[in-house]
From TrEMBL:
<comment type="similarity">
    <text>Belongs to the HSP15 family.</text>
</comment>
<dbReference type="InterPro" id="IPR036986">
    <property type="entry name" value="S4_RNA-bd_sf"/>
</dbReference>
<dbReference type="InterPro" id="IPR025708">
    <property type="entry name" value="HSP15"/>
</dbReference>
<dbReference type="GO" id="GO:0034605">
    <property type="term" value="P:cellular response to heat"/>
</dbReference>
<keyword id="KW-0694">RNA-binding</keyword>
<dbReference type="GO" id="GO:0003677">
    <property type="term" value="F:DNA binding"/>
</dbReference>
<protein>
    <recommendedName>
        <fullName>Heat shock protein 15</fullName>
    </recommendedName>
</protein>
<keyword id="KW-0436">Ligase</keyword>
<feature type="domain" description="RNA-binding S4">
    <location>
        <begin position="16"/>
        <end position="82"/>
    </location>
</feature>
<dbReference type="GO" id="GO:0004812">
    <property type="term" value="F:aminoacyl-tRNA ligase activity"/>
</dbReference>
<feature type="compositionally biased region" description="Basic and acidic residues">
    <location>
        <begin position="96"/>
        <end position="123"/>
    </location>
</feature>
<dbReference type="InterPro" id="IPR002942">
    <property type="entry name" value="S4_RNA-bd"/>
</dbReference>
<dbReference type="GO" id="GO:0003727">
    <property type="term" value="F:single-stranded RNA binding"/>
</dbReference>
<dbReference type="Pfam" id="PF01479">
    <property type="entry name" value="S4"/>
</dbReference>
<dbReference type="GO" id="GO:0043023">
    <property type="term" value="F:ribosomal large subunit binding"/>
</dbReference>
<keyword id="KW-0030">Aminoacyl-tRNA synthetase</keyword>
<keyword id="KW-0238">DNA-binding</keyword>
Length: 140
């Protein structure tokens, strides 16, 4: 057996915990963040709130809210390990309506930022004093 061949080949799982799958599909950076998202109601399975320990199978419909984005997905593959991004993206299929809605929301957020210019450098001592003084006026 060469070094590049796996020691054993395990059969693919029939179901995987929801929080583990979300982590493996790279929706959340850590498994604890995925678990927290599920517990706070940011993940629905088939339109119902789920627990982190819920077993998901291929074909299940998920709705995942991450920040300002909402993903509508269908599970296409199962994995208990976090792999490279192309492998993770093969684990699900996002609906066209979801992609279009996320793109529209992204464009709206970009339009809201239009006209804002970040300062070229940090404020100096005089500018910081003025900023602080303006903050005091707003507090009145």
């Amino acid at each position: 057996m060469t070094r590049s061949e796996p020691m054993h080949s395990a059969p693919p799982p029939e179901d995987v915990r929801l929080d583990v799958w979300l982590w493996a599909a790279r929706f959340f950076r850590t498994r604890s963040l995925a678990k927290q998202a599920v517990e706070t109601g940011k993940v629905d399975v088939a339109g119902q709130r789920a627990k982190a320990s819920r077993a998901i199978r291929v074909g299940d419909a998920l709705q995942v809210v991450r920040g300002e984005e909402t993903f509508e997905l269908v599970v296409r593959g199962l994995s208990e390990v976090r792999g490279p991004a192309p492998v993770a993206q093969a684990l699900y299929e996002e609906s066209e309506a979801s992609k279009a809605r996320r793109e529209q929301q992204r464009l709206q957020r970009a339009a809201m930022r239009d006209g804002y210019r970040a300062p070229e450098h940090k404020p100096d001592k005089r500018a910081r004093r003025l900023i602080r003084a303006l903050g005091d006026i707003d507090a009145l």
